[in-house]
Amino acid sequence: MTSADPRSDSELLLAHAAGDPHAFAELFRRHRDRLWAVALRTTGDREDAADALQEAMLSAHRNAARFRGESAVTTWLHRIVVNACVDRLRRRQAHRTVPMPGQDDPRAHGEPAAPVVDHDTAMVVREALAQLPVEQRASLVLVDLEGHSVAEVAEMLGVAEGTIKSRCSRGRARLATLLGHLRNPDGPGYVPTDTAKGGER
Fold this sequence. Notes:
single chain, mainly alpha, Rna Polymerase Sigma Factor, Chain: A, Arc Repressor Mutant, subunit A, disordered C terminus
């Protein structure tokens, strides 16, 4: 298949489930950049993001026949990716040893630094997101950074809309403190514009 494949996402997924050997590759090509961005922002680590994305795509590839069309294919894919990221982060936290004095930042244990092409603000936001609880981080990434509605994110994560609103509210409050301290010591309430733009939906 070429990039000009005229089929819709749902048609590609159905074709894959029916045995088309090219359909899933086209579907992934169509959405890989955004799925990668979600994985990277949720995990805060390129290696974890790559592993989570691979696990998610294998799961989607194997379970395509279970898709019932009750949501958009992109919503379904995002749900699988975010769940893979959350599972990976939880496993990492469960196996994390007690840090030694002076090493209480988990990012100090060999995690790759942000790419040098990142702007300062993006690096600071990534650092701050990494300090949030997994559920708050996933909700904020999807709502504020990816631009999904609260309803869409609630569907992706399988929780009530009120739960997403609550997670986002608590996460934003925490980010306001973290980012204010990192970016502007004289203004603890400062939040970079591109982080706060999502607002409550």
